[in-house]
Amino acid sequence: MAAPVGTGARAEDSGHEKQDFQEKESVIPERAEEAKLKAKYPNLGQKPGGSDFLMKRLQKGQKYFDSGDYNMAKAKMKNKQLPTAGPDKNLVTGDHIPKPQDLPQRKSSLVASKLAG
Amino acid sequence: MGLLLAVGLQSGVADIISTVEFNHTGELLATGDKGGRVVIFQREQESKNQPHRRGEYNVYSTFQSHEPEFDYLKSLEIEEKINKIRWLPQQNAAYFLLSTNDKTVKLWKVSERDKRPEGYNLKDEDGRLRDPSMITSLRVPVLRPMDLMVEATPRRVFANAHTYHINSISVNSDYETYMSADDLRINLWNFEITNQSFTPDIVDIKPANMEELTEVITAAEFHPHHCNTFVYSSSKGTIRLCDMRTAALCDRHAKFFEEPEDPSNRSFFSEIISSISDVKFSHSGRYIMTRDYLTVKVWDLNMENRPIETYQVHDYLRSKLCSLYENDCIFDKFECVWNGSDSVIMTGSYNNFFRMFDRNTKRDVTLEASRENSKPRAVLKPRKVCVGGKRRKDEISVDSLDFSKKILHTAWHPSENIIAVAATNNLYIFQDKVN
Known about the structure:
Chain A: Pfam families: Endosulfine. The complex is a heterodimer of chains A (117) and B (435). Chain A is mostly helical and 117 residues long. Chain A has four helices and no strands. Chain A has a domain of 33 residues. Helices cover 44% and strands 0% of the residues of chain A. Chain B has a four-stranded antiparallel β-sheet, with no helix packed on it. In chain B, strands 2-3-4-5 form a four-stranded antiparallel β-sheet, with no helix packed on it. A four-stranded antiparallel β-sheet of chain B has the order 8-9-10-11, with no helix packed on it. The mean pLDDT of chain B is 90. At the A-B interface, α2 and α3 of A face β7, α1 and α2 of B.
């Protein structure tokens, strides 16, 4: 808590405030934990537990499958033998014929990646 | 508490158990797992020759309930994991249960066959067809006893009714209807009609603009006696009680249960840990119990502004919320159960611990479900978590807790002191010590 530089009386006031705040933080462990989290992830959403979490919960199970890639790769297969499930499962475009099982789960940009048990 | 526990039986189950449920008599215990299978255990009959074998549950039937699916239209992978199993009350010799994954509810009939017909005219005992021209006389097939066979057949499939993920199913006390709840809607079904649920949905909290979404439905249950009443809980820690007699769409609740929050206590985690993961009516129908991340609360249906009882499950986790958020454990959904007389409530925790609270004596106990600590017939020893300060010999410190060992699903026999505890992929059954 930044205390404005001022007269002696002002500094005393803000000292009291700072002490109250610290006491409050130690009394409520959640606040201390929140401070830890914000220190690690400064860009964490402003809304506490808001709709970001809910949207992620609703989108559980989303796996993207591009039929264009699938058909392109299938066409290429006619010319040369290619392994279908390549060693690199992240390669889902180009020569590799993706199957739903091969697709990686869409990674979230938030810290919490799973909401459903 | 009056409950001394002895280990009756423990079974290894192949996949992670995702739901556990006794039937209405307690004779059967069903488990669903992550692989879409249902395993039903049956209690051994009391026998004068072996009195100590009373209470053991053995495998009665196993079947594959759901398979994994891929919805190509929505690019959605549908897990086969069984989210919930609910039994129907028994009305004839067969048993019926509902099992559901994220999208589809199925009604299964489990029946016994102990006779088979023999002496067909047109086919012999192997099933091969006989030459009709060789048949000179007719006989009447007879039923002969055979080894008991338990078969499970799907009788109804209730599909394509949920856009979001089903979290609850509940059978109505009228035995004719049941509800299924997903994140935003609750559907009412008639057991006989599978191609549609009652439309419109009985609850729909989807906002016109999804950007305005602030809460989701987390659990729902019918009142045990009043077929027109049900409750549903939300991710914001509230419970709504609805009466289906008032309107076809119950978007206006009859009662709204919420505990006021002290705004000075609010933190980033407040809403997440207040999200209710389970709601259960008491057997009497007078109370509801809710489970949020750190507590279990009992509410009187006649008092909406606060719970009548609050029990701390593992309050020591309050100082661990940052790491529990990072490893996603803060989103774990614990269930809670009543005992038959509504005097004791039980819920799970981490490190394979589970907790019981006696509502009358106000005493509580922490027990552990693990192979190392449970020899058959041994009495379970109470456990204790040490919160800072000196750790006594038998205690375990908060930092030593294994958060991958979580007990999310438990069940209590409807009338006796027999409990089933699912610890990852192991099922433990404990019962009162019988002298």
